[in-house]
Write a structure and sequence with these properties.
about 400 residues; alpha/beta
Length: about 400
């Protein structure tokens, strides 16, 4: 057994404990959180730490397979410019370069305190690494195709990739989903095929949402930078009919009988969008979560979502890093620092909840991760002045920059 005492312990599921201690088995399983003065076994030496002890972080939105693109795409291109660059450069590396980049990116997450990841996959390049990774992964097989006549073909390709993932991992279907990329990259027919399949398999789902103002303009008026981008790419978008409303109002009805949905980015979601989405979730029983990826939002669009508004509206937020094509690190803690710097009025304990228990609940793995509760093995992170120290699943300390 090991015992860690810190200036503050934040179990997440309970109030913070000043001068508290966390007792664990050698494998990191939590045996209890104790206040000063509580009786502990005299046989267990106490390791005294300066800082705040919290559970390991949960990264709910990542694109591990894009790690090789770090530094290749300039900042501030807007979503249309960013997408064009990803498409243009997608084949610009060798298989070895991709594998090495993914390995380095995963190691960064581990040393920065991440214990679990919701990862987007468009191909199988990350599957072998995930099979032997110490991280928990839920893989979202991402599908997109604009034309209604190709919906079934696109979905079948995604289903084949899902089956390949299952064979590579030796896992059941609970660890993988098929989901839409974004409202503006799937036809209604494909969207319905995706959500229908998810209902059959009781899957959790994720979708990029309102990452740019251009997305709202496309659905509201049928014009704007995304419409222009499709024209430049020679894509047939003639079937699309603008709705006069934001994209979220068009998207949500597809999910009326699904279990859980993560809306990712939400940079340009309005208060009314949030209210409407909350009402929809309450009426349909949809478990609705909202992923904060501030560093990617700043990288691509140069703006941040209004997180205090989201907090005021009572949204259930999680934290993601997006990809190294749109970020400089895959550190969840770096995302929290960005939010805190922009919105210091949000309590630190609330930010930690977003980055731990909320993410664990979305990914269906809060029985192990997300809080310092008895019998869980969530990992330990020490947040200290000037940096952090990660106490891994086996409770061995490693430095974090």
């Amino acid at each position: 057994m090991r015992c860690f005492q810190a200036d503050m312990v934040f179990p997440v599921n309970a109030a913070s404990v000043a001068g508290g201690s966390v007792l664990t088995e050698d494998d990191g399983t939590v045996l209890g959180v104790f206040a000063p003065g509580d009786q502990l076994s005299e046989d267990v030496p106490v390791e005294v730490l300066k800082g705040v002890l919290v559970p390991g972080f949960v990264n709910t939105h990542c694109h591990l397979e894009l790690s090789w693109m770090k530094g290749l795409i300039p900042r501030d291109l807007g979503m249309d410019g960013f997408i064009a660059q990803v498409v243009r450069q997608r084949q610009g590396s060798t298989e070895e370069q991709r594998l090495l980049a993914m390995q380095a990116a995963e190691q960064e997450m581990i040393t920065k305190g991440v214990v679990a990841v919701g990862d987007i996959s468009n191909n199988s390049s990350s599957f072998a690494g995930k099979a032997v990774s110490p991280l928990y992964y839920h893989t979202f097989i991402e599908v997109f195709d604009l034309h209604p006549t190709r919906a079934e073909e696109a979905f079948r390709a995604a289903e084949e990739l899902r089956n390949e993932y299952l064979r590579s991992q030796g896992l059941d279907s609970a660890h993988v989903s098929i989901n839409a990329h974004a409202p503006y990259t799937v036809s209604p027919q494909l969207h319905e095929r995706i959500t229908s399949f998810a209902r059959e398999h009781n899957s959790i789902l994720s979708i990029h949402n309102q990452e740019s103002e251009a997305e709202n303009e496309l659905f509201k008026k049928g014009t704007g930078k995304l419409s222009d981008m499709y024209a430049r790419m020679g894509l047939d978008y003639s079937w699309f009919k603008h709705s006069g409303s934001h994209s979220l109002q068009v998207t949500l009805p597809f999910y009326k009988n699904n279990r859980k949905l993560l809306l990712v980015h939400n940079t340009f979601a309005s208060r009314q969008d949030m209210k409407d989405a909350k009402a929809f979730a309450a009426a349909t029983g949809l478990g609705l979560f909202w992923a904060a990826c501030p560093n990617a939002n700043h990288y691509i669009e140069g703006v941040l979502p209004d997180y205090p508004l989201m907090q005021e509206e009572g949204l259930k937020l999680t934290v993601g890093t997006d990809s190294l094509a749109s970020n400089v690190s895959l550190s969840v803690f770096d995302e929290l620092k960005t939010i805190h710097a922009a919105y210091p009025q949000i309590p630190s304990e609330e930010l930690i909840r977003w980055a731990t228990l909320n993410g664990a609940e979305f990914l269906d793995m809060d029985e192990r991760y997300g809080s310092l509760e008895k019998r869980k093995r969530p990992g330990l992170v020490l947040i200290e002045s000037g940096g952090s120290r990660v106490l891994g699943a086996d409770a061995r300390a490693r430095r974090v920059i």
